[in-house]
């Protein structure tokens, strides 16, 4: 295929992608910072409304962007993209989830997809073949325990590693913890009730969701549980300072889990 240099034209890029899709013969993808999806929003909405296969790739997805500061740090953007009907919004936690997200986006013929990535490097997560197959369901059990969990931690993207570290610390204290990675909530919501209940058993109400974005979106999954997120604009500083400053630490997740148990 060919590359098109659009310049600083996020709406133009996205609208032209829709036109290329409608013309046929190509599956277009275009990339920019997630914050600048705001400039392209009408074209994204039209892609979903028309049901065209445009692939929107967004990077620098959170306060992890760092020194560029709050003007460039997404807060509400991931949740608002998830609210667009017929849009699949993927926020993978590592290269494996990224590959699955790309495959699902290519195979979805009925509408567009957003693939959302961090700026910072993220650790690779270990998986069985069964877990690998389950990624395409949008949400799956990344780490489990024997028997019924005492609590469930739900994470996406860069916060999955944080959820895994918190789970290990809680397990060392004798707690039974399940970690659910949910790279695409829209796809997870489309699964049958049996699958969703297997991942998030209704009997386990002690739940904590962790995502570096607004918190309101996650209460439909945690119910009376807790959400660790950010409901204010960010700051200009290195990512390694911003995450603990805004409460994204193992200690905070462990404390939240203990608080709901």
TrEMBL record:
It holds the Pfam family Transket_pyr. The lineage of its organism: Bacteria, Pseudomonadati, Pseudomonadota, Gammaproteobacteria, Chromatiales. Its EC number is 2.2.1.1. Keywords: Magnesium, Membrane, Metal-binding, Thiamine pyrophosphate, Transferase, Transmembrane, Transmembrane helix. InterPro entries: THDP-binding, Transketo_C/PFOR_II, Transketolase-like_C_2, Transketolase-like_Pyr-bd, Transketolase_BS, Transketolase_fam. Homodimer. Residues 1-124 form the Transketolase-like pyrimidine-binding domain. GO terms for molecular function: metal ion binding; transketolase activity. One of its GO terms (biological process) is pentose-phosphate shunt. It is an enzyme of class 2 (transferase). This is transketolase.
């Amino acid at each position: 295929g060919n590359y098109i240099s659009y310049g600083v034209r996020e709406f133009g890029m996205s609208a032209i992608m829709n036109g290329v899709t409608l013309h046929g013969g190509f599956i277009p993808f275009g990339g920019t910072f997630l914050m600048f999806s705001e400039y392209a929003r009408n074209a994204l909405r039209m892609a979903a409304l028309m049901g065209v296969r445009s692939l929107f790739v967004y990077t620098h997805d959170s306060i992890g962007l760092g020194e560029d500061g709050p003007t460039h740090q997404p807060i509400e953007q991931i949740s608002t993209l998830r609210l667009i009907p017929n849009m699949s919004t993927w926020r993978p936690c590592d290269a494996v989830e990224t590959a699955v997200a790309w495959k699902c986006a290519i195979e979805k013929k009925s509408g567009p997809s957003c693939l959302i990535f961090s700026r910072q490097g993220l650790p690779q997560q270990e998986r069985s073949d069964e877990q690998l197959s389950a990624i395409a369901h949008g949400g799956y059990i990344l780490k489990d325990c024997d028997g019924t969990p005492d609590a469930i931690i739900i994470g996406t993207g860069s916060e999955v590693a944080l959820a895994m570290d918190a789970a290990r610390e809680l397990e060392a204290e004798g707690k039974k913890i399940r970690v659910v990675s949910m790279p695409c909530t829209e796809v997870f919501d489309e699964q049958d009730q049996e699958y969703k209940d297997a991942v998030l058993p209704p009997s386990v109400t002690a739940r904590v969701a962790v995502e570096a974005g607004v918190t309101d979106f996650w209460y439909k999954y945690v119910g009376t549980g807790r959400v660790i997120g950010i409901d204010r604009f960010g700051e200009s500083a290195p990512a390694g300072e911003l995450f603990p400053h805004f409460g994204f630490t193992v200690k905070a997740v462990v404390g939240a889990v203990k608080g709901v148990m």
